[in-house]
User: Which sequence fits this backbone?
């Protein structure tokens, strides 16, 4: 898949063109997702990817400490 904007990737996942795992891997959060899964002993999956992205979105809109989701 060629390089798409975040908004285009959101559209692709919403339209079922790509899976949640593909979505996360194609964003700037791909490496962080892999590390998060490894740190928590979970397998990369669409459910894990959705959970991870929900956490990312919460952190983006939250005034909490930066990078909390990567270490906990």
Assistant:
């Amino acid at each position: 898949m060629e390089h798409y904007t975040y908004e285009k990737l959101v559209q692709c996942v919403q339209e079922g063109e790509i899976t949640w795992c593909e979505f996360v891997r194609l964003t700037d959060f791909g490496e962080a997702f892999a590390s998060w899964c490894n740190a928590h002993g979970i397998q990369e999956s669409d459910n894990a990817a959705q959970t991870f992205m929900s956490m990312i979105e919460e952190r983006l809109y939250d005034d909490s400490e930066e990078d909390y989701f990567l270490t906990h």
About this structure: The chain has five helices and no strands. The mean pLDDT is 86.
